[in-house]
Structures are given as C-alpha cells and as structure tokens.
Amino acid sequence: MSYLILIGGIALLIILIAWARFNAFLAFLIVCIFIGLLSGLSAEAIIISVQKGIGDILGSLVVILGLGAMLGKLVADSGAALRISSALINAFGRKYIMWALVITCFIVGIPLFYNVGFVLVVPLIITVAARYNLPAVYIGLPALSALSVTHGYLPPHPSPVALVQQFNADIGTTMLYGFLIAIPAILVAGPGFAVTLKKYTNKPLQAFASKEMDEEKLPSLTVSMAAAFMPVVLIALSSLSSYFLPPQHAVTIFFKAIGDPAMAMLISVLFAVFTLGLHTGARMSAIMSSLGEAVKDIAMILFIIGGAGALKQLLTDSGISNQIIQGLTTLHVHPLLLAWSISALIRVCLGSATVAGLTTAGIVAPLIATTGVNPNLMVLATGAGSLMFSHVNDAGFWLFKEYFNLSIKDTIKTWSIMETLVSIVGLIGVFVINYFL
C-alpha cells in the first residue's frame, strides 16, 4: 500500500505541475495532504508534519541562499563577471575562445544562481560569436554546460545545499567531490560534444547582444575573482584544516568558524559590498536596495525547497519512508544508482532540476543510514540525475531555444543532449570516486 500511496503522490505532483500548471510550492502542499490522508494521519498531524518539515529544511538554508543571491547580484551588477570574462577572452585569444567562455561560465556560475548566470553570460556569448564570426551554438553550448554543472553539483546553489542538509553531508567535502566530477562532465558535454555543433549556424537574436561597459568603471580582475571565489575558498579551507590539523588546534577552530557556510557567505557579501559597491562609488542605499531585489528573486525557490522538506517529513511521519526503504534494500540496486535514477525520472517528468533533486531526497534519504553509502556522493548522484534530458517542460530549454534562435528539434539535438551528457558523466564520476573511497 505504501508504494501505491507514494506513486500516487508523485503522479499527482507531476500532474499538478506539468499539466495543471500549479505553482510547485502549492503542489507540494496538496500532495502532502493527499499522502497524509491516505496514510491515516489526522489533519492536525499533517499540519504539524508540514510545519516541521518546512522549518527543519529552511532553518539552515535561508541565510546561505539569501546571502548567495546577494553575492550573485553584486557580482553581476558591478561588472565583476564582465571583467573576469573579458580578461579570460583576452588571455586565450580567438583560437581558444570556447575555453575562455567555458572557464568564465564555471567561475561566475559558482556564486550566481542559474537563471541569473544564464541571462548574464548568454549576451556575452552572442556578442563574442558576432565579433569573431563563429557559430553561437558551437561556442555557447559548451559554456552553458559549465553553468549547468555548477547549478546541479556545487554549493551554494539551492539544490546541492538543500541536499547536503537533507542527507547530513559535509558541504566542504561535497564541494571537493563536486569539483572532481564537474571537470570531466564539462569536458565531455562541453568542448567534447561541441565538435558536432559547427553545423548549427543559426543567427541568435541580436537584441540579446551584450551592451558595452566602460572598462574604467569595472572592478579590477583581482577584486572580481576574489569576490566570486571567496565562499569556495573559505569553505574549502575549513574542510582542509580539519584533515591536516587536530580538531582543537587554533588554526582549525578559526577556519571552522569562518568556513561555516553561513559565515563564509556573510564575509563574502560584506567584502563584495565594499569592494564591488562602495569602492566603485555606489551609494550604500542603492547597494542595499539591489540586495533586497536579489532576495525577492529567490523567494519562490525557498518556498519550493520548503515544500520538498514538508514532503520528506510527511513521508517519515506516516511511516512510508521506512516501508519503502525496506523494499528498496531488497532490490540489490546500488543506492547511488537508485538516487540518480529516481531523480532523473522525476526530472524528465517535471522539468525542474530543483524539484527533482529535493523530491528524490525525501524518498532515498533513509538509505544512507541503512546502507552506509557516502552521503556526499548521494548529494552528487541525486544532483546528476536532476540534470537528465532537459526538454519542453524545462524553462532552461526554452531560454536556450529563444536566445539562440533554434527550432524545437535542433534544441533537443543540442541542449537536451548536452544536459544528458552532463548527467551521465556525473553518475560515472560518482561511482569512480566511490570506488576509491
């Protein structure tokens, strides 16, 4: 009966989001009520589970995601991302322009949320393609593969951060493994796949071409790189210090303090406020207004994550999770493959990578305790599955189609295949790391 309730709940979620066009947060709440009632819980018990689930998952994430949005806004509005990309393009030259764009997207994709990063870098790609008379798809898709990888694999992006919390993983270790997996995923789905893309000579819409900015008003490359990478560096130092020094060592304690994800993001935002804002002549009131707008942009993401947390808690409180896990452990399927498969299936059905990853977490999280699988790799396996085969039900699919002026058929043959390669290579990378642990 538990299987039928779970399948019915997921089916209802898919119908509400994909067919009825419900808001994802509302859909999660409806599904929670549906599953709770069928499981025999009272209305009061369902409400308590929903509130606890939302509170538990958002309690540790609101600060990180809110500050992450603020940092991304500062990096974008100040021109720091443009400075980084311009420096890389000048350093690599025309012959290796694709690699310059790939590295640019990887760097700016770490602090920037996916949609922000997409609309920031695509005009740059279109401008570069026109300037050097190169097919926009040929140089653009590899760059966007790097953006997709950071979105699916690396904190502080919403889904990886939420998965780290749900799986009780370590954010620094997950980030380290994520980097190891990201590189081959980008190489295969980006420049590797690009050799088949030279025939797509569609002219992108020039309305999306990047506007030139006064070089003198842009922040320096050193400051731009420092602002973009500071959260990664601080979190990495925290993890590395615990590996090489005793827990009670003063250096370990210090790096643990500043490397806590929330503290690392706060330090990075304050650094960016002064170096990318006040130092460039911007007024504090204007900077704070911009940061307020950044938080508004992620409000719905927070609600969706909260809805997924409610679903996970409801599955736990109803006893469905334990019954499902007992059944799954008899299938003799590796938990990493199982997490990837469930996430990929939900992604193909729903389109949203975030919803796919977080819904999967509610189903497979108990496997970590029963199987002893590495929780950091479970985060990455789930994230890889959530990127599988983006198609017509995914907003990213339509963004790429419209910006690059492609037909639906050609978008599937380019964008959808790239996302599939990122997902599959990510799964392979997870198993390679798991083999050596």
What is the count of distinct domains? 1
Name the poorly predicted regions. none
Rg from alpha-carbon coordinates: 22 Å
The share of residues in extended strands comes to: under 5%
Helix content estimate: over 70%
* DSSP E strands, number: 0
Family: Belongs to the GntP permease family.
InterPro entries: Glcn_transporter (IPR003474)
Protein name: Gluconate transporter
Transmembrane segments: 5-22, 28-50, 57-76, 96-129, 136-154, 174-197, 218-242, 262-282, 294-311, 337-365, 377-400, 412-436
Give a verbal description of the structure:
The protein contains 21 helices and no strands. It has one domain (2-436). It is globular, with a radius of gyration of 22 Å. By secondary structure, the protein is an all-alpha fold. This is Gluconate transporter. It comes from Ilyomonas limi.
Structure keywords:
21 helices, 437 residues, 78% helix, mainly alpha
Short description:
With about 425 residues, the chain is mainly alpha-helical. It has helices at about 1-20, 25-40, 45-60, 60-75, 80-90, 95-110, 115-130, 135-155, 160-165, 170-195, 220-245, 250-260, 260-275, 285-295, 300-315, 320-330, 335-350, 355-370, 375-385, 395-405, 410-435.
In terms of topology, how is this protein built?
Blueprint: H1 2-19, H2 24-38, H3 43-59, H4 62-77, H5 80-92, H6 97-109, H7 114-132, H8 136-153, H9 158-166, H10 171-194, H11 221-244, H12 250-259, H13 261-277, H14 284-297, H15 299-317, H16 320-328, H17 335-350, H18 353-371, H19 375-385, H20 395-403, H21 408-436
